[in-house]
Amino acid sequence: MVRKHLIYWSLISFLLLVSCNKTDKTYTNISNYLKTKDIDIKDGYKKIIVITDDGCTVCTDLFSNAILNELDSLHTLFVVTSKGKGTDIQQFLQKKENIIVDWQIDINKYPEFSKTSAIFVTENGIDTILKIAAANIYEQIEFIRTR
Question: What is each CA distance from 31 to 25, 40, 54, 107, 127, in whole angstroms?
Fold first, then answer.
């Protein structure tokens, strides 16, 4: 019985360690990308909104229009890799400090920016990565607005 509990707790500890390590790698990778754009992830950003051409174009268009009010937020950073295929990105092409337009991003090197998503950042790392999906897009948009 004791051995069974020991194996169980060892497995849980291992999974937590692997999970934390992945989160740390994700945070480091995002931070490294932002440094290439002369931005420090600790500059007060709480959300990173990623707009891409990958996935459901209707969803990306709906999502990008729904989060337009975030453009003026000092706590929201936008990374736009979309070239506007099916999505109107004109509003994201403004010259603003909180908007990065990067059509040359290496998705293999920075896979965190490969899907339209919202990345919630804390002082110590990544809290949540929410990849936008058709099945629950309205709930996702509401979640983003309230955070």
Answer: 10, 7, 22, 15, 14
Q: What is the per-residue pLDDT across 43-84, written as a single tens digit (0 to 9) for each?
A: 889 999 999 998 788 888 888 888 888 899 989 999 999 998
Q: Where are the beta strands (DSSP E) in 10-125?
A: 47-51, 76-80, 99-101, 117-121
For 100, list phi and psi in degrees, rounded to 5. Answer: -110, 125
Distances, alpha carbon 132 to alpha carbons 50, 62, 74, 119, 143, in Å: 10, 10, 22, 11, 11
User: How far apart are the C-alpha atoms of 141 and 135, rounded to whole Å?
Assistant: 12
What residues pair up with 51 in beta bridges, in sequence order? 80
CB 78 within 8 A of CB 58: no
CATH topology of domain 2-146: Glutaredoxin (3.40.30)
Domain ranges of the chain: 2-146
Residue 34 contacts residue 41 (beta carbons within 8 Å)? yes
What are the pLDDT digits (tens) for 12-48? 443 333 334 446 888 999 999 999 999 998 888 999 9
